[in-house]
Design goal:
The protein is rod-shaped. The relative contact order is 0.10. The longest helix is centred in the middle third of the chain and has 45 residues. By secondary structure, the protein is mostly helical. It has three helices and no strands. Helix 1 packs antiparallel against helix 2 and helix 2 packs antiparallel against helix 3.
């Protein structure tokens, strides 16, 4: 498992743990304001890591598919044509 996926899983687990601590603390009449703030901040961080991971995966897949296009079509149509086809198909 790559580093970015490990960090995403770690942050999600941390968010769930902080939410559980907040709920349990609230039910047992403890002051959990600081933990609640950390839980909310953790969800923001999860969103940032999730967006980064999605962006990274999209770009890696785009590079992988471009290489496949070149390998498949370069022999038949030439490398320049294969690059143009890959660019047209994979443009964002």
């Amino acid at each position: 498992m790559e580093f970015s996926k490990k960090m995403l899983v770690l942050h999600i687990c941390l968010s769930v743990l902080l939410c559980l601590v907040t709920v349990i603390g609230t039910l047992t009449d403890h002051d959990v304001n600081a933990i609640a703030v950390l839980a909310g901040t953790s969800f923001v961080t999860d969103g940032a890591w999730g967006g980064f991971y999605y962006w990274k995966s999209k770009n890696e897949n785009r590079a992988k598919y471009a290489q496949r296009f070149i390998n498949r079509f370069a022999g038949e149509y030439g490398a320049d044509t294969a690059l143009r086809i890959a660019e047209i198909v994979l443009k964002d």
